[in-house]
């Protein structure tokens, strides 16, 4: 594996780093795909045209997103697996940043729109949506504990929720056929419909079927094509068993072995010359312990005296609406300063946590203001392995692997290039 120059993200404070929206993030990778197909871009594209072999022959681009495969996670897995190390030699490698918060809803929406979170509005795992007077799980598009897509029954139209086209719509308008290959658990969900508007879809129920669908699509399409492939079980394995576990690391090892055996080695030389493989992730994961979790309820002093409900965001990137900023800030820092970096909303925006303030807005001013309201008055960003959980219901459980914050493990993702 050839290692291209790594980026060095700017620090917010010791151990917490800022996304590189100006040129070295997954947002820039998404815009590279637009530029590659001669489409209008929304953010600065990643500069990597000179790294692609047979550039003039490329007609098909694959973006393969492996959920929760951070750069540190991948390197650690490769240290444990000679097979994975050998298969990674096929690729050139760069290192990018994810977005903030480092969570699936925010990052996948950035991939699929070419915009940072503050512009596309999917700013966390749970958000308060005033139009529905409800805290909403943004993956299931439903209030906590209700069935998936419950809000679609109350008028939420996933095809119109975002105030911006997807990259698939832009590519399609410019003559590029778009495909999405995702799990059959998600293919008809509201979130997938939102993310992949403008794309045809194929689904799978196993890893082998995923690669079969990819090879099938590559063989059928003869003109300019973009294929988005999503694999989510790496995230699940990391959450349940930790990133040093055999299920997590072995799953990554097997994924790359299958990609080589079931796709790359089954393609003709002409097909390989016509195809660009880009493999990356939405975020990484950090291993945590239950001792570093704090669970609070509405009876907690923090909630009763200092906050307006609800608490939203992520356990490692928490959004607060406060009653009195001065008293809240003093109380929170006294209680949590060793575990969380507290930052006021306007300071977070000025520090480019959610977007690059130097880049002109691609959404309406009204939509932008609605998005800003979703991050509350203050954001608490977890240090090390800490997390803060609010009990919305009776069910509670501990995850070994977590993400959402700005540690090295969560923020940095690999970009593997096979051309």
Blueprint of the fold:
Blueprint: E1 2-3, E2 11-13, E3 16-17, H1 26-36, E4 60-66, H2 71-80, H3 82-88, E5 92-97, H4 104-113, H5 117-120, E6 126-129, E7 134-137, H6 167-173, E8 177-183, H7 190-195, E9 200-204, H8 207-220, E10 225-231, H9 233-241, H10 246-262, H11 269-274, E11 275-280, E12 286-287, E13 293-296, H12 301-306, E14 307-314, E15 317-322, H13 325-336, E16 340-344, H14 345-350, H15 365-373, E17 378-382, E18 387-390, E19 401-402, H16 408-411, E20 412-418
Parallel strand pairs: 1-5, 4-10, 4-11, 8-9, 8-10, 13-18
Antiparallel strand pairs: 2-3, 5-20, 6-7, 11-20, 12-19, 14-15, 15-17, 16-17
Keywords:
16 helices, 419 residues, Gyrase A, domain 2, 33% helix, alpha/beta, Alkaline Phosphatase, subunit A, eight-stranded mixed β-sheet, single chain
Query: How many domains?
Result: 2
The chain-level structural class is alpha/beta
Q: What gap, in angstroms, lies between the N and C termini?
A: 13 Å
User: In total, how many beta strands?
Assistant: 20
Give the integer mean of the pLDDT values. 93
What's the helical proportion of residues? 25-40%
CATH architecture descriptor of the largest domain: 3-Layer(aba) Sandwich
Count of DSSP helices?
16
Give me the CATH superfamily of the largest domain: Alkaline Phosphatase, subunit A
In the CATH hierarchy, the third-tier topology of the largest domain is known as Alkaline Phosphatase, subunit A
CA radius of gyration: 21 Å
| Largest sheet composition | 8 strands, mixed
Give the strand content. 15-25%
Regarding CATH, which class of the largest domain? Alpha Beta
